[in-house]
Structures are given as C-alpha cells and as structure tokens.
Amino acid sequence: MTDRQDPSDQSPVTTRRGIRSFVLRQGRMTVGQKNAYERSWPKFGLTREQGLIDPKVAFGREAPLNLEIGFGMGKSLVEMAEAAPEQDFIGVEVHLPGVGALLKEVEERGLENIRVYCIDANDVIDLCLPEGCLDRVMVFFPDPWHKKRHHKRRLVQPEFIQRIRSKLKVGGICHLATDWENYAEHMMEVMIAAEGFRNTQPGTEFAPRPEHRPITKFEQRGERLGHGVWDLLFERVD
C-alpha cells in the first residue's frame, strides 16, 4: 500500500488483506481541503512507513489514547477531541477528501490532540500501533453491506475484534455504533462471543448513546428514515 501524502494523487488505496470492507470513493478535494492538507499533513499525518509508533512521541505527552476507524469527514472526531483536550485521538480514513476536511477543522479549531492515518485500518492495527496502547476504539456507522451476499465485507468480524483487543488496554472500551438493525444484531453476536470482552450493559442489551459520541449526520439521516441507532460498549477484561 502507498501512503497518501500527495493530495493530487487519486490512485486506489489497496490493502494487504483479501476482503476490503470499504469502497473507495474517488471524490476530489475542495480547494480548502487541499490547502489544509498541504499545510497540516506534515504535522498531524502518520504513515505506514513510520512503522510502530510511540504515542508519547507522536503527541509529545502521555494521555489517554482513542482510535476512531473510518471518521468520514471528521466532524465527530474533531468534536470529541475539542471536548476532551486532556485526551489524544488517532483517526483513520482512506478517503482523502475526508482527511482534508478533518485537517481544515483541526486548523480552524486550533486542535493539537489529533493525529491521522490515510491508509487501510488493517495496516494501522497490524503495523503501527503498539500492544495495549489504546484506551478506546471507536467504529461509528461503518458500511453495513446490507445485502446478505456482502455480509462477509463487514468490518466487524471476530478476527478483526481480536486484533483490536490486542491494541486495547485491559479496561479499555470498544465502542461500535450503527443505524442498521441487522448490522447491530451482527455486531452484538460478534461481541458477545468475543474472547476477552464483556458487555458494559446487562446481557445482550445495547447501550444508550454516551455523551462523548456526537450525533452524526448518519444518525440524523437514520432518524429521518425511521431507523433506530444502536451503540455497543464492550470492555476488554483480559
């Protein structure tokens, strides 16, 4: 995989793993996104070639560390980072306009506690994050791949969750959210069966939306369409 450091580069993002959980949208960056990317990527961007990071070096301090996988246009991530300046946040997104939009927001809000990857999340997990470095992993509204024949493409699968587990501290939280009921049920089945995790709610109950998770455009869209929204918060127990 090639790390995306040139905002004019619209070549496909590839992955070392066989089944890809995302479809690469070939949207162009706006002028504002491109300019923010060019100014801020050297400071806030992380690459696969850097290998295993030391979060204390990457952020210049020791603080609780959060990872958001698939941050879209970055609105929720910057809102969480702005609301919790005592914490650090790493965002992962393969779509370059989303990275540009995030960096534009980071500049406008004067944030210092965000770093970003523009590569497949599998590479970040496998190659870039130390064991037990994360306090929280967040996957909000991933592609539901709602057709049954596409369910194998869903990001939340048993093997993926176990790889996430290895990066979480004991006591760390895996926070998933979706506005597709079938995917919510699938997520719950995966998490209930996942070794080393326990539901923070009784049995197989879904969690109320925590205050730290902003209401996203996907959630608003789901409400307009009459969809529910389901949050799952599972703690790593060993």
In short:
This is tRNA (guanine-N(7)-)-methyltransferase. By secondary structure, the chain is α/β, with parallel strands linked by helices.
N-to-C span:
32 Å
* CATH topology-level name: Rossmann fold
- Classify the helix fraction into a percent range: 25-40%
The overall pLDDT, averaged over residues, is 89
Strands of the largest sheet, in order across it? Answer: 1-4-3-2-5-6-8-7
Give the helix tally: 8
The CATH superfamily is identified as: Vaccinia Virus protein VP39
Structural description of this entry:
By secondary structure, this protein is of the alpha/beta class. It has one domain (35-236): Vaccinia Virus protein VP39 (Rossmann fold, 3-Layer(aba) Sandwich). 34% of the residues lie in helices and 18% in strands. Strand 5, helix 6 and strand 6 form a beta-alpha-beta unit. The longest helix has 14 residues, at 31-44. The protein is globular.
Reconstruct the topology from this structure:
Blueprint: H1 31-44, E1 45-46, H2 55-59, E2 65-69, H3 75-83, E3 88-92, H4 96-109, E4 114-117, H5 121-128, E5 134-140, H6 158-167, E6 168-178, H7 181-193, E7 197-199, H8 217-224, E8 230-236
Parallel strand pairs: 1-4, 2-3, 2-5, 3-4, 5-6
Antiparallel strand pairs: 6-8, 7-8
Helix pairs in contact: 1-4, 3-4
Organism: Marinobacter mobilis
Function: Catalyzes the formation of N(7)-methylguanine at position 46 (m7G46) in tRNA.
Binding site for substrate: 147, 179, 216-219
